[in-house]
UniProtKB/TrEMBL annotation:
Species classification: Bacteria, Bacillati, Actinomycetota, Actinomycetes, Kitasatosporales
Bilayer topology term: Multi-pass membrane protein
Species of the source: Streptomyces halstedii
Bilayer-crossing regions: 17-38, 81-104, 116-135, 141-160, 198-222, 248-272
Top-level lineage group: Bacteria
Keywords from the UniProt entry: Cell membrane, Membrane, Transmembrane, Transmembrane helix, Transport
Pfam families listed in its UniProt record: BPD_transp_1
Protein family according to the UniProt entry: Belongs to the binding-protein-dependent transport system permease family.
PANTHER family in alphabetical order: D,D-DIPEPTIDE TRANSPORT SYSTEM PERMEASE PROTEIN DDPC-RELATED, OLIGOPEPTIDE TRANSPORT SYSTEM PERMEASE PROTEIN APPC
Protein name, as recorded: ABC transporter permease
Chain ranges of the ABC transmembrane type-1 domain: 77-271
Matching InterPro entries: BP-dependent_transpt_permease, MetI-like, MetI-like_sf
Main localization (coarse): membrane
Protein's cellular compartments: Cell membrane
């Protein structure tokens, strides 16, 4: 059986991977399709009765100001996935460039890049993000994802460096080097494909981390200045005493959405680890 076929064979039989992936896809589809199906394009518009519980018209009720919680939820899902993709992708790209180069070249290049990684690693990323967000007049989801990506890559770079360091002495790498291939050609044609499963799992963790960091910033009032996200929904519910007023329909959906996204990613990642690692596979 070919490696790809073998992985697929175990993937379709792994309940953790199937459940986690299914939940992520359902939430992603809701975030992509839900806003399109709404009559109102502005989730923050005052459209209904104030503080109304869920009913046939407003599926998730309304806020203290008469905003549709369902409209905010589906728009918030889209924004939350966007910041996860942007932040996770930027962090993954930086981690791969730094980790591959440091692990393959070694020597002075490795020392310089490792020092840079350690410096960024010990910087309190959340504190830096707090300062940056506090001094920015206009903040968007994309900009938030950019700053999260620029501060969350060091641990992944160190892990990739270690894996690359062990692969660079393999015979197929020596053959590529003897054939005259350059550094990046060897890295992306020989080393990276042998780490594809590891890199994919790393991106999932970076994705989930970006979602949690963004939600934390949103909750303390340093999220995007325009639009809506799940973290901003929680911040608004807390600010206007939804818990004290018994308006559970305002704070439970965004909290459950964030938990579901991060939890499903973690479960899917555990399932992928069992699929890719022969020692963890269930017969």
């Amino acid at each position: 059986m070919k490696p790809g076929g073998e992985w697929l064979h175990y993937a379709v039989r792994n309940p953790k991977l199937l459940i986690g992936s299914f939940l992520v896809l359902v939430l992603l589809a809701t975030g992509l399709i839900g806003p399109v199906l709404l009559d109102n394009g502005d989730p923050n518009e005052y459209v209904g009765p104030q503080a109304s519980p869920p009913d046939g018209t407003y599926w998730m009720g309304t806020t203290t100001f008469g905003q549709d919680v369902y409209a905010q939820f589906v728009h918030g899902l889209r924004a939350t996935f966007l910041v996860g993709v942007v932040g996770g992708a930027i962090a993954a790209v930086i981690a791969m460039l730094v980790g591959f180069l440091a692990g393959y070249r070694g020597g002075l290049v490795d020392e310089v890049l490792t020092m840079l990684t350690n410096v960024v690693l010990v910087i309190p990323a959340l504190a830096v993000l707090l300062i940056i967000n506090a001094y920015m007049g206009v903040r968007s989801v994309a900009v938030q994802g950019l700053f999260i990506g620029l501060t969350s890559w060091p641990w992944a770079a160190r892990a990739i460096r270690a894996q690359t360091f062990s692969l660079r002495t393999r015979e197929f790498v020596d053959l590529a080097r003897l054939s005259g291939s350059g550094t990046w050609r060897i890295v992306f044609r020989e080393i990276a494909p042998n780490m594809s499963s590891y890199l994919f799992m790393m991106f999932i963790l970076l994705f989930g981390g970006a979602v949690l960091i963004a939600s934390s910033l949103d909750f303390i009032g340093l999220g995007p200045t325009e639009g809506v996200s799940l973290g901003l929904m929680l911040q608004s519910a807390q600010q206007w005493s939804a818990l004290q007023l018994g308006m559970w329909w305002w704070f439970i959906p965004p909290g459950a959405g964030i938990t579901a996204i991060v939890g499903a990613l973690y479960v899917a990642n555990v399932g992928l680890d069992e699929v890719f690692n022969p020692k963890l596979r269930e017969s």
